[in-house]
Amino acid sequence: MRPLTEDETRLVLEKLAHFMGKNIKLLIERTDEEHCFRLHNDRVYYMPVRLMLAALTVSRDRLASAGVCVGKFTHSKKFRVQVTFLDYLANYAQCKVWVKGSSEMSFLYGNHVLKTGLSRITEGTGKNQAVMVLNERDVPLGFGVTARSALDCAVALPHDIVVLNQADIGSYLRDEAHHPAAAL
């Protein structure tokens, strides 16, 4: 486990800024306890400094993870946010989309959010904006990118796509069904 380089930090913070905007300061400059980002096996983890210091006593080959996985770097060195960081994204996200109960399962099966499944959307959300997807009880379900702005949603047809699904909490179960040996 090592600190991120300047380029890696820039990529991570740029990706998180798509969701959080200026709220990313609240994630970095916490008042309760100092937190940090660390890289281990191409995965970026977010953790309290005291946990990071404790994890340093474990050898690299024996350390599975520490803290919350923010995302991972691909082979082409792009950064992808993972669903494991969903709670933090939901707390600090600027733009949110709420889906109706009838469309909740559809989204969790990996489908996009249609206009018929849209309950409400944050005012001022633009097209191609990274958004958090929540159910009507404010439980985070995943995240995606808007296919239409909030204004366009008002005049959209019932079966038009409003949010493109990037990740959802059902993806873990779908991945386990395809790769059951990976769980061992």
UniProtKB/TrEMBL annotation:
Q: Does the keyword RNA-binding apply?
A: yes
Keyword Repeat included in the entry's annotation: no
Q: Name one GO cellular component term.
A: nucleolus
Q: Which Pfam families match?
A: pre-PUA_NIP7 (PF17833), UPF0113 (PF03657)
Gene3D superfamilies, sorted: 3.10.450.220, PUA domain (2.30.130.10)
Please give one Gene Ontology molecular function term for this protein. RNA binding
- What SUPFAM superfamilies does this protein's entry cite? Pre-PUA domain, PUA domain-like
Q: What biological-process terms (Gene Ontology) are attached?
A: ribosome assembly
Annotated ranges, domain PUA: 95-170
Q: Where found? A: Nucleus, Nucleolus
Q: Which UniProt keywords apply?
A: Nucleus, Ribosome biogenesis, RNA-binding
Under the subunit heading, UniProt states: Interacts with pre-ribosome complex.
Q: What does this protein do?
A: Required for proper 27S pre-rRNA processing and 60S ribosome subunit assembly.
Family affiliation: Belongs to the NIP7 family.
The name on file for this protein is 60S ribosome subunit biogenesis protein NIP7 homolog
What organism is the protein native to?
Answer: Cyanidium caldarium (Red alga)
- Give the organism's phylogenetic lineage: Eukaryota, Rhodophyta, Bangiophyceae, Cyanidiales, Cyanidiaceae
